[in-house]
Amino acid sequence: MNLEENMNRLRRRVLGGFLGGSAISLFLGQTWGEKEKNMKLGPFRNEDYYREDGSFDVEKAKKSYYEMMEFHGYPIPDRLRTEEFWTLDFGLGKFTEVGMAGIFWVNNQRDNYFGHEIYLLPGQMIPEHKHVATPNASPKMEAWQPRHGWVTIYGEGKATEGVMDRVPSTHKGCVQACKEQKLLPGEVGILAGAEQWHWMLAGPEGAIVTEYATYHDGDGLRFSHPDVSMV
């Protein structure tokens, strides 16, 4: 076999391997694409989270957050299956509009640091609030980093044009933080100053957000909506 024949054989092998690999990649890509099409989040209907007597069904709410975690490929450690993982509707009866789940990974008063994970269903709002000084803590300062999905954060300052169109119905008459900033996964937003009003709104795929902060003293929590409750 001469040099030219050897080169032709080598070309055929390389080309055959390339095409075979491409076909496999294409097949896997189509399979994954079909899988993505079948991965649906929701729908989440407000009435599904309330019992006949009007009370909030915590376990049903948690199941929806687990569904969202699985949708995003977020690991669910055992600790998130315990009572340390909490959820609430802030007493407004509109869980799919105003509600959240969370876990305090750490809340260290002595050394003044706090680690929190925030979980929001699609379009869900954390009600507007601020953290004031207490006898046991300075005003809490915070920063937020989305891990999955995205959020819009709202703080004090010059109002963003058209912001009132995006304020959920429950807060149309009381919201004070109207400067908005969209945060994509990995980006970080920082509270502009101590004791400033702020709130958060999840995007269409919900959001899982890591919060970095100073010590959280619940006694320093204030809400702008007069009917919000932590019970």
Keywords:
single chain; 9-stranded antiparallel β-sheet; 231 residues; 2 domains; Jelly Rolls; alpha+beta
CATH topology of the largest domain: Jelly Rolls
What is the mean predicted local confidence, pLDDT? 88
CATH domain class name of the largest domain: Mainly Beta
Q: Write down the domain tally.
A: 2
> What is the beta-strand fraction?
25-35%
Gross morphology? globular
Rg, Å, rounded:
24 Å
CATH architecture of the largest domain: Sandwich
Order of helices and strands: HHEEEEEEEEE
Taking the alpha carbons of the first and last residues, their distance comes to: 85 Å
Strand segment tally: 9
Sheet having the most strands? 9 strands, antiparallel
Q: Specify the helix fraction band.
A: 10-25%
Fourth CATH level, the homologous superfamily of the largest domain: Jelly Rolls
* Category by helix and strand content: alpha+beta
**Low-confidence regions:** 13-37
Describe this structure in words.
By secondary structure, this protein is α+β, with helices and mostly antiparallel strands. Helices cover 22% and strands 29% of the residues. Strands 1, 2, 3, 4, 5, 6, 7, 8 and 9 form a nine-stranded antiparallel beta sheet that branches.
Offer a concise description of the structure.
With 231 residues, the chain is α+β, with helices and mostly antiparallel strands. The protein contains two helices and nine strands, in the order H-H-E-E-E-E-E-E-E-E-E. Strands 1, 2, 3, 4, 5, 6, 7, 8 and 9 form a nine-stranded antiparallel β-sheet that branches.
